[in-house]
């Protein structure tokens, strides 16, 4: 298998998936967690951990280094952009000129993340979505302000908003919709999609941020009419915006009513929920094939237990010494394992927990219990 680079705010899931598929991996992210470095042949930092933002200059320096030097004497065939690059179409374009980008083209990402373009397409095709305005509504009650360049829900605000100047072209206002936040995980080739499954997302309030993404559970069963409609919508979006590779479609579900929220044109967190079927390419191999040759998986989704991931955020400042880091690394179901010496402020992501069971409710119960136990243990660990 060739050597690929994976880049994101946290690249651990992509690095592990690519390594499991036989790729040699260079990981670029903010954290350099223990398991990220274990999966990769090399790790390169692309931003400060506490910022939760990638640094464009550092990304470009890393990509130039890989393009010029390769890895271990082998060329790096391309790079895969994950979370944190949604709002960076110019950086994607600049990076793709240095090292081939294996994913949705930067120009398509720019169109997709332009609220007027994206929601204009939804309206023209009569695709259900919560009402959207590009200027602040006169009565802000029941409206949210969002940033199309944001990720993880940190950008979502309820009124009152602090607008010292007019909103940018990538800010928009969306009427809040009741229901359950869900997503569809799929692979696209610009013409069609292969839906891996449907997921329920977990969001919680952090201070003034009401909808921070904290985890996802799936696959979960949905009625056939919902599955068919969402798959059809994903296909229309894949054609219009030339989506390629692993993606996710976020939507609200309220009974039989759905409302499209956004598309993530890159490998989503929910990819971790889907196991590799026997005699079938893994997800990162499928991503590369869809991007480079237009090949989509042909096997139907395989029966499996429900999986879940939960991001654990610090409740107080934490400084991990060596014994604390060692004990944390041995915690059941832990991922994104921090190394000794790392410091976390309140609301910083500490690690990720995983769990599996026969349904969404028991998985969530396991994750909630594990999170509380881990946070209580940290009070004595660090």
If you had to describe this structure to a student in words, what would you say it looks like?
By secondary structure, the chain is an alpha+beta fold. The chain is built from ten helices and 18 strands. The strands form four sheets. Strands 13-12-9-10-11-14-18-16 form an eight-stranded antiparallel β-sheet. The longest helix is centred in the last third of the chain and has 22 residues, at 360-381. The chain is globular. The model has no long low-confidence stretch (mean pLDDT 93).
Summarize the structure.
With 382 residues, this protein is α+β, with helices and mostly antiparallel strands.
The residue ranges in which pLDDT falls below 50 over 5 or more consecutive positions are none
Named CATH topology of the largest domain? D-amino Acid Aminotransferase, Chain A, domain 1
Shape: globular
Average predicted local confidence, pLDDT: 93
Helix tally equals 10
Q: How would you characterize the largest beta sheet? A: 8 strands, antiparallel
The value of Rg in angstroms is 20 Å
Based on helices, strands and strand pairing, what is the structural class? alpha+beta
Highlighted features:
382 residues; 30% helix; D-amino Acid Aminotransferase, Chain A, domain 1; 10 helices; Rossmann fold; Aldehyde Oxidoreductase, domain 3; alpha+beta; 3 domains
Compile the SSE list and pairings.
Blueprint: E1 3-7, H1 12-20, E2 24-29, H2 34-39, E3 42-45, H3 56-69, E4 76-81, H4 89-98, H5 106-112, H6 115-124, E5 132-133, E6 143-147, E7 157-158, E8 171-175, E9 180-189, E10 193-206, E11 209-218, H7 224-241, E12 244-254, E13 257-264, H8 283-293, E14 306-313, E15 318-319, H9 322-329, E16 334-335, E17 343-344, E18 349-357, H10 360-381
């Amino acid at each position: 298998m060739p050597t690929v680079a994976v880049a994101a705010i946290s690249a651990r899931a992509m690095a592990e998936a690519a390594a499991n598929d036989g790729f040699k991996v260079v990981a670029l992210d903010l954290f350099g967690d223990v398991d990220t470095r274990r999966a990769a042949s090399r790790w390169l930092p692309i931003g400060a951990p506490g910022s939760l933002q990638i640094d464009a200059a550092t990304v470009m320096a890393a990509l130039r280094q890989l393009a010029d030097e390769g890895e271990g004497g082998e060329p790096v065939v391309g790079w895969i952009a994950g979370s944190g690059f949604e709002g960076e179409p110019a950086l994607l374009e600049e990076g793709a000129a240095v090292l081939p980008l294996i994913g949705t083209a930067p120009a398509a990402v720019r169109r997709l993340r332009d609220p007027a373009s994206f929601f204009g397409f939804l309206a023209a095709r009569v695709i259900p979505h919560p009402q959207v305005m590009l200027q602040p509504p006169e009565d802000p009650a029941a409206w949210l302000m969002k940033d199309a360049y944001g990720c993880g829900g940190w950008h979502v605000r309820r009124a009152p908003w602090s607008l010292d100047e007019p909103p940018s072209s990538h800010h928009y206002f969306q009427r809040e919709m009741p229901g359950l936040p869900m997503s569809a995980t799929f692979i696209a080739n610009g013409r069609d999609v292969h839906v891996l499954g449907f997921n329920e997302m977990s969001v919680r309030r952090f201070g003034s941020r009401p909808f921070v993404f904290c985890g996802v559970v799936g696959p979960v069963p949905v009625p056939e009419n919902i599955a068919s409609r969402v798959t059809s919508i994903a296909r229309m979006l894949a054609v219009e915006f030339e989506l390629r590779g692993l993606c996710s479609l976020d939507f609200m579900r309220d009974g039989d009513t759905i409302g499209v929220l956004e598309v993530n044109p890159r490998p989503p967190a929910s990819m971790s929920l889907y196991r590799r079927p026997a005699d079938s390419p893994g997800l990162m191999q499928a991503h590369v094939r869809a991007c480079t040759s237009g090949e989509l998986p042909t096997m139907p989704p395989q029966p499996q237990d429900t999986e879940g991931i939960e991001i654990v955020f610090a409740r107080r400042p934490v400084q991990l010494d060596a014994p604390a880091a060692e004990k944390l690394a041995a915690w059941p179901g832990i991922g994104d394992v921090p190394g000794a010496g790392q410091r976390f402020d309140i609301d910083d992501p500490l690690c990720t927990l995983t769990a599996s069971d026969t349904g969404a409710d028991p998985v969530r119960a396991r994750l909630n219990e594990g999170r509380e136990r881990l946070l209580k243990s940290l009070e004595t660990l660090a």
